[in-house]
Structures are given as structure tokens and as C-alpha cells.
Amino acid sequence: MTVLWGISFDATPISGVVVEFVKTARIFREQGYQVHLDLGYDVKADKNAFFRPYADEASLLPDWVRLGRVEGLDQVPGYDQQFVSDVLSEYVRDGEGARLLPRIEAAAEAISDRIVETWERHDVSFVMVENGTLPENITYTRALRAAVERYGKRHRLGRFVLWRDHDLMWQSEPGTGKYGTFPYPRTVAPVNSPYIHYLALHEEARRKTLEWVPDLENIDVLPNTFTHAPAVPGRRPAGFRAGFGIPEDAPLIARCTRIIPQKRIDRDIHLLARLAERVPGARLFVAGDTEEAPGEHARLVRLAETLGVGDRVVFGGRLAPHEADIGAASGDGWSVRDLLAHADLASFLTSYDYESYGNPIGEAIASRVPYLTTRYQLYDTVYGDKGFRAPVMELTDGDLPTASFVDSVAELILDERKREEMADFNHRLGKRHFGADRAGELLAELFLTPMGEHTRMSVVLPVYNEAANLPAVLTSLYEQRGADGPLDKSLYEIVLVDNNSTDDTVKIARRFAAEHPDLALHIVPEPEQGVACARKTGMDFASQRSARRGLPDSERRFYLVSADADCRVDERWLWELLTAMESGKAAIGVCDYYYSPEHFTGRPRLWDAIQRTLRCRAVTFSLFGGFPDGKGFAVEREAYEKVGGIEIFYQLQNGRFVNHLSDDWDFGILVRGSGEDIAYVPGSRVEINPRRVNHALDEVITGRAYGSDGIIVMRDIRMPEPEPDRGGEDLTEEEALQAWEFSIKDFTPKNTILPVLLTPSLLDDDGVIEFFGPSLAERLGQRIAEIKEEMRVVDFTPIHSYKTPSYRLYFEFADEIFARLRATVGEDIGYPPPLPECLRDVPPERFTEFVRYFCEDRESGEAHNYFGNGGVF
């Protein structure tokens, strides 16, 4: 399982920082990552949670987020809440406290060790740091940076850290001088690292960061994003207002906030009091934890009583986050989304210099609720300059709502049409700037692991629970050789696509990468089960990274190479592929395959059937180039992109859609149909794992190894292999004949007919004419043209559209084709297998007509069953 580890420096169960983590982490979860989050209790001193065990915090987050923690921090000598507070006040703010420096360094080293130990234990693949640059705890930040460097170097992870700052010194209460003054010499400034990609929430934050650290690289803007699902009044959650004692017809102002002085909830209470005459009965709902700062809560309650609105201010407690999509967070299970569904307005009358972003505004916009706000320091940067419409309280006019501001709010509450227009306008604009899909697009663009400048090939290796085979496979890839010795490891990389493995597959891959640092190995998750999906993910990953390098394509071609996790490659596999494709300029290079004889000792009949199939393959692939097989082929990147890459097709099996297994063949057909050449590279050899035959020998014999009735799906074939010296039990003569007939029936339409069906010009090639003979070559060409005209099919590339004409041509020309195979491959190829029973009594003059009916039968699937579903030999 691929793991994302998050750490929030906010040290609270739910905050804007935590919610943003959840939203971004969801993108990783959809890609198959397991998500862990450290809430940062052991980081920040002023939240009074230092070393406090987790209790019910998990209930506030989606069930797919696992709360994590770095173990043993309470055992680090001298590291505690008081120490962190002293460092912040003396060393960071006042520039004194040099006596603390040795303790800072010692604690940072010990913490770094524990962070790395934790990541190793969880096999962490990606890390998200939220607000790590804000100097609340420079000791921990130093430790975290050291851990990133050590872990990244050990596992060759590329930029595996997303470091996102929501608040920085100049936008988090700068008037207090809490973090010193520019250029903040005691703060742990961002540093260039091959393992970190920095994110700012807006262009102003990025500009200021670069003013602070001018040479900082890899910093981009990723704004907070929101799911734009408007709150529909007709679908308000029932019981919400009654549960909090709010009349159904009472105008409602929502304030989602922490209840602390900096949030200035007193302004909302004064606003409510001043609205009393214009909007009688209006209510203010404050959603926040009343226990975080009990003194502030008590002060606000007294203020409401003093102003005569005590019965109209509802302190509703902590609600589930707007974006977290979770169940009960409070006793009644209400969320911010529920509150906004009932609200007429959302308020954000915060301090001038406290908020950097203003998530409650974004949540209101996304829920199609009008908002009101102060013009806090970054309001215009984030919202105002983009054109959002709202009553804005100008803080230059005083500390509390003015009469004109109160009038504008009252007018908005009383004018439903104006509220609707403002909400609609803001919702459309917000979706464009802050839509949830924007984060996915930016992350996909930003976090593609860079590719080496000299890399020419990416070997894509789909894996699912291959712990037993993986060490040998990776070793064979590592030990590749070139013309004069070991192949230069900078020429290629491995992209291992983990398809939901539950064994030690990923751990083994990481250990191999750590032990072989000279060969780049990337681990990419693919959550949709199926080798086709995994192969596509790996090839797309490699293709995009290759294209982003900026190297002139005219100088060097780049190749995507498919390998199989249960097959071993010969030591010159890659080199032979590379040199053949470079010299011939083919779009695809197809490997040669073989079985090791030692696995078939004592099974001569089975071995004979296999070898006859492979001998036929060698002849036809030499003539036509053949089609790629996932066990081993290479495709030039531009050709891959030209046809749109690998396409996943789906079939219905037992009422469910399943992905089709023949993605490699279908891809080859697309490339061939686009006019590109496919080259057979017999020197690039792959040894097939005998389990492909052994796992279900009865089904291999009967042509049902991967399904029937036209359904071709991947099956788990990890069965115990026969001992090499015994070889297992041989086939009977009858079984051997049946196995051969299904193998050759699968082989012939696909490997001798399909190439010329897709590319009739091959029939003009001298070698092809020699193989078929002039007469058969000419008649094949004529018949292909007739069938194309009859079927009115111009493009044979979509999946299965080639099968019907290939099957028809097989029946019409089988005797002649087999005669040519006997002459070219050997007499032991024999004669065509018996016809389907339904065709045996058809009058000769109507044979071609009924062949068509048989091959196009739309109900029984008999044609698919006759030809079998995959030549496992």
C-alpha cells in the first residue's frame, strides 16, 4: 500500500489547515494512497495539547484518514511545551536566548531520527507539510527538513514532499512582532531541496516568499479549493434549526470560526444588535469550539447579554468541516455545510492582520451563500481583486460595524432577489478560481517526478502481490548489459505500478531501490484493479515526465518499455530493443519469448505444443512485425501519444463491467492502423514464467484460460509451480492435440491474417509474397477489399472490430495458410483443426455465407469460444 503522511503545524483537530489537508489528500486517496495525518499536537505549544493522547479526534475526520504520530517525542531530552515556548519568545522573537541553541540542535537531531523511523515503519511514499515554515517551533522544523533529506536520499523519491504554507510571518499577526522582523533571521527559511516542492496560497504570498528567499526554486501557487455544491433551500437538512432553537422563518447569519479574540466575533454581536430594528428576529450562529478559549467565550456571552441579543446568539459548538464529507462530528452530527444550507448570510468580520486566506468566505461562495467581511489584509488579494461581490466593512472607518455597513447588510437580508443574484454571481466566479478539480490539475502538473537528462527508456512494471517473484525480476532489470559491458544505469529507469498489493511488494521494491541507488526506481499507485489500468498509468507517468524535460525530440527518441512482474528478461533485453528501434525507426519493438526447458522435464507433449506455437510466431513476426505483448515491448513516446496511449476497454461479466485484458494487442492495432511500423526484435528475449501454463492446465488445453464467450479478463495465476527437475505431469496425446489446436486457432487469425487486414500493402512485400505464394497473396488482398466494402468499415482499430473479418478470412483460407505454415515452419504444424460442427454440413457453395453468420453471431459467442481467448503459449 502506498502511503501519504501529513503533518499539520496547527495542532488542532479541525481548522482551515486541516480541512485543506483533507481536500488535497482526497486526491491522493483516489490514486490509491493510504492517508495518515499527524495533527501536530507535539509541535505547537500554545494550543495546550502537547503530548496529549488522541481521543475522539478521528471522529472529526473522514474514515479514510488515519491519525498518526511520531512516537517517542516525549522521550527526547529537554523537548517539551515550555522549551518550545521559550525558543519562540526568547530566540525567535527577541533574538536572544543563545543558550538555547545547543538544546535546539540536540533535540532536532533526536526528533529527526524518530521522524525517519516512523516513515520507514509506515513505508511512506509522499509527505504533506502544512504550515511548517511558520516559526512556532523551529526545532521541529529543523528536524523535519533533516528527515526529508535523509529519507528522500535513501529511497530516491524525487520531490516527494509538498510543503504548503497557509500563514507566514508577514501575514499572521505581524503587528505583534511575535516572529521578529524582516528578514526573520531566527526562522528556518525555505531551502532548495531535490525532495521538496513549495506551495503558496496566492501570488502575493509567493512574491513575498521570494523577496525573503530570492533564490528559492520550485515554489508555485495552489489556492485553497472548494467543492461547489450549492446549498438548496428546498433540501435543507430537517431538524437543524429546531435542534438549536432557531425559528424556521428567522433570518440567520452564520459565523464559522475558532472562538478566540483574534477572530473578532464581538463585531458580529454588535452587528446583530444594530440590525434589531431593521431585521427583527435575526439570529447569529457561531460554529466553533467553546472550550478552546473559555475566557473569550464567556466574554462574548456577556457582551450579547449586555447588548440585548443574548437569546439570539447561538454558540453551536464545533461542527463537522464543510469539505470533509464525514458523519457526526458533534452530538447531533451537523456540519458546516448543514449550517450554510440554512444561512441567509455568512459572516467573516475578522481582524485585519490575522487571516491569510479566509476559508469561510470560500465555503460560503461554494455553497451559494452571500457573505460579508472585513477588508482584512489579504482580502483583496484572495477575493476582492477577482471581482467577488459582498458588503465589506472598511476597518479604516472604525473597529465596529458602522451605520452604513449595517444598512448594507440589512438591505441584503431583506432583499431575497439581491441575495440570489449575488450568490449566483459569486458561485460561478468561485468555481472558475477555486473549483475542487483545480487542485487535481495542479498537483498532476506539479508533482511528476523529474526524469534524468540522459534517460532514454522507462521500464513500466505493473505489480500485484508479486513479492515472491519481484526480487528476481528487479535483479534481471538491474543486470542489463550493453554492447561492451553493464548497461549505463542513467539510460533507463523503472516505473513500478503498484496495483493494490497487500503483501510486501512495495516494501521489497523500496528496499531494492535503497540497495541500488544508481538505478532510478519510481513507485506509482493505480487503484483500479487490472493490469491494463496499471500499464496505462505507468506509461502515462513516464510519457508526461519525458515530455516535460525540454530536450529536443529531434535529437533523441524516448521509449516506453513494458515488462511483466512474473517474467525474467535476458541481460541484453533493453539494449537489443534500443539499438533495433534506433536503427530501424519503428514505432514499436516486439520482443521474443521463450520458456526454459527445465520447467518441462518429463512433459514432452506439452513442450512440443509450446515450441510449435513459438516457432510459428518467430516466422510471422519476422514477416509482419507482430503486435506488442505486455511481457515485453517498447513504444516510441511520440507514437504512443499520437494514438492517445493505451485505452482501457470494458466488458460485461456477470452483470458487472470489467476491464478487458487485451490492451497491449489493441494498442498495437492502433499504432499499426496509424501507419507506423512495428519491428520484431528476436535478440530481445523474455523468459515466460511457466505458471502461465501450469496454473490451470485444463483450461489452457480447452482454450478457456482467460475466459469464454468473448470475455477476456486477467486472472490470478499465482499457483505453486512444478519442480524444475520433475516438470509435473505431461499431457495425454488427446490433450496435447486439443491444446495445440486451440493454440494454433488463436494464433493464426491474429498473427498471419490480422497484420495484412490492417495493412494490405504488406501483401506487396517480396518476403510476404514468398510466404503466402503469389496466388494466395493476391486473393487475400482482393478478399480483404471486398469484406471492407461489404462491412462498410474503414477503421479496423477499435477493439474487437478486427475479429469478425479475421475469423472469416481464417475459415476461407485456412487450408492454404496451413500449407504455407507447413512449408515455412515445419511439417509438424499439420492441418487446420476441425471446423465447428455447425459448418461441417453447410453446402460448399454457401460456405462463405454461413462463415459470416457464424463469425458475426451476436448471441452465442460460439466464434469466440471456437478460437479461444488468448494464446497462453
Automatic annotation (TrEMBL):
Enzymatic class: transferase
Amino-acid biosynthesis recorded as keyword: no
Limits of the Glycosyl transferase family domain: 241-423
UniProt-listed CDD domains: GT4_PimA-like (cd03801)
Glycosyltransferase 2-like domain location: 458-638
Keywords linked to the UniProt accession: Glycosyltransferase, Transferase
Entry's Gene Ontology molecular function annotations: glycosyltransferase activity
EC number: 2.4.-.-
PANTHER family: GLYCOSYLTRANSFERASE, GLYCOSYLTRANSFERASE 2-LIKE DOMAIN-CONTAINING PROTEIN
Protein name: Glycosyltransferase
Biological source species: Streptomyces marispadix
